[in-house]
Amino acid sequence: MLNSYRDLTRDISAELGKLRSDMPDTLQAFNALGKAASAEGALDKKTKELIAVALSVAARCDPCVGFHLQALVKLGATRAELADVLAMAVYMGGGPSLMYAAKASAAFDEFSAAAAAAAPVSA
After folding, report:
1. C-alpha to C-alpha distance for 75 and 17, rounded to whole angstroms
2. What residue spans define the domains of the chain?
């Protein structure tokens, strides 16, 4: 059972670092693809990350859920926006997507709590 999306994204990042040494051209190309796909265009970055969350849920990819929920929290996504995206993912993917929607909701809560704890306290 997955205990922490923060731990998962940290651990996967470390493993990806190893792969960068083993296959630098592939990782460099993949990173360029991600940067190009997520760049502002007709859709803003938050909308693109919401789409990525829906696709992560549909693909049942825990690391993907973690990385994209982490990005969404940083972009200021709301629980209502997440709920709308998860509703569509469940509609399109049925029961298995419902199970991953619950995981995505937990990841949102985890990253939101961490962001709130790290935020500077105003006087």
Report:
1. 24
2. 5-37+44-116
pLDDT digits (tens, 9 = 90+) for 10-29: 999 999 999 999 999 999 99
CATH for 5-37+44-116? 1.20.1290.10
For the chain, give the percent of residues with pLDDT over 70.
Answer: 98
pTM score, two decimals?
0.87
Question: What is the per-residue pLDDT across 51-60, written as a single tens digit (0 to 9) for each?
Answer: 999 999 999 9
CA-CA distances (angstroms) from residue 120 to 40, 52, 73, 77, 114? 28, 29, 16, 19, 12
Please, which residues have CB within 8 angstroms of residue 111's CB and are 6 or more apart in sequence? 5, 6, 69, 70, 72, 73
Quick one: CA dihedral 89, 74, 27, 42, positive or negative?
positive
Q: Return the H-helix or E-strand segment holding 28.
A: helix 24-38
In the predicted structure, residue 46 carries a pLDDT above the cut 70: yes
The answer to whether the beta carbons of residues 18 and 28 sit under 8 Å apart is no
